[in-house]
Amino acid sequence: MAGKATAVDVLRGLKRRFDRCRRQYAPWLPWKLDEALSVGVNPTLPLLQDMLLLPPPAPVPGDELGTIKGALYELEDLLDDLDEHAGVRRRPGGRPTWKRNNDAEFKLHHQHANPQHEKYKEMVGVNGATIIGRDTEKQYLKDLLSQSNPDDLSILPIVGLPGLGKTSLARLVFEDKEEGWDFDLRIWIHVDDNFDLEKFAVCIISEANKLMKGKFSHILNRSDCPSYLKFKDCIEEILSSSSCLIVLDGLLYANEHWLPDLKYVLGETKHKCTRFIVTTSSEEVAQVMHTVPSYKLGGLSEDDCWTLFSEKAFGSRDATIHSWQTKIGKAIVKRCMGMPILAQSLGLMVQNQDMETWLAAGNDELWELVERHSLEREVFSSFKQIYYDMSLMLKSCFLYLSVFPRGSDIDKDELIRQWIALDLINSSRHGTLPAFLHGEMFIEALVSRSFLQIVNTSSVTEKKCKNPPPTILKVHSLVYDFLRYIAADDIFTLDYAKSPNISVRNQPFRYAVLTNYSWQAKMHEDFIAKAKAAKAAIFRNCEATMPTADIFPILRYSRTQELAPKHW
């Protein structure tokens, strides 16, 4: 549940802020308040975090989770008040050290609620499922690897967005038994975020020993192997005596620190003929690992997506297909954007369902469908694995992208300035490194993970101009759905053009987005009441006559209110 992960992250952030506030503001705290915080609040936060992290006997009801989050947000607001009052006391003349509406404190910190989260392989092509539409790519990859000198180490990364079928394509190549594509050993290794050189050695040796019926058991029995210093010696005996096809499936950005060492050791190891295929969503990982050009995987054709969708939606080829199913199904396939994971997931969703469900699959927001039909595992598991390996600050910056409308052109420099204004990037946390430079690094990290796309960038000549054109970013549509799913409990959008009579949910939210409001519309009282605790508010495409003077004072804890340009 996304809300549970949010609550855990707010807790972790609160614990850090609480300790900082008590150390920093102790001289100004009334002794009873200081005692209450020390005795009552401080021991409670770890207990509450443990309660959320440990698997409960039954799921935490949504209303109870909302109550917990509301209490956490109120405590966060209390810390904000401490910041404000301490600032007033310390500033000569009683002036505050900042204006609340110019700075910002939008902190949406998501961290995985279970450190032992389930590793997930892409659904297409696993467990015997038919892999469709990748024969051309399979042959191309085989040709790339075959052209290399047998004595040279060949590492071929397959790069692409989660859900495109990287694992499926690698499996096609791995399982191909065509003449001329012969290997003594075929070893498949699924990489997790705790993977390192020793675990790599264990996997290689144990799999090789199993496939060769105990031939390498003497290596496994060595007391000094595998260790980093003996890594090369442990695997050289295997690679030098056997031709090997090895797949490293799911290399993450988090694995990057040991990848250069892995590549170096493999390059120095004597081998008979070793071919590596690496699947990753990180272009930086591909850049580090490749010895032959990386292959950037694209989407399936619409016809192939229809075939995948039909297999799941209609089951048997002899099934009766109604004309309305074909018509609506074609519309559903169009929204899949060539993503096999979507074609299969939506096909399963509409299987044996009525027309209403089919129409919803074609029209409703994908992130809402995922939540409504419990499709998180099928659609978002690969995204979550990457997301949970990100730093807390990078997650917060990434989640902020969900406030932009789908398909928006995002000015890179303006985005970084907003991150800084919202205190998602704070220069005081990075020593002497400027906050804007950290923002640039975060952009690169998100692009590397395929979570952001660069639409255009300034050339060297343009950058020398007085006013170079901005670098424009986009969020892929499926990534945007993942964002909205993760941030659903914390970012609230009220669009008067679509649903002016929508009821505001009971759970508190931290970011309020009001869209298409006009002077003729009646402001939701519930919206105003719930927005009191919002850390930031944004008004898009709203008429100038809207009662901002009435709204702004109510948004007591909002440190930024943005009147966005009409074209956003």
TrEMBL record:
GO biological process: defense response to other organism
A GO term, aspect molecular function: ADP binding
Record flagged with keyword tRNA-binding: no
InterPro entries: Apaf_helical (IPR042197), Disease_R_plants (IPR044974), NB-ARC (IPR002182), P-loop_NTPase (IPR027417), WH-like_DNA-bd_sf (IPR036388), WHD_DRP (IPR058922)
A Pfam cross-reference name: WHD_DRP
UniProt cross-references to SUPFAM superfamilies, sorted A to Z: P-loop containing nucleoside triphosphate hydrolases
Domain Disease resistance protein winged helix: residue ranges: 403-482
Taxonomy, superkingdom: Eukaryota
The NB-ARC domain, residue ranges: 137-316
Sorted UniProt keywords: Plant defense, Repeat
Protein name: Uncharacterized protein
Organism: Oryza sativa subsp. indica
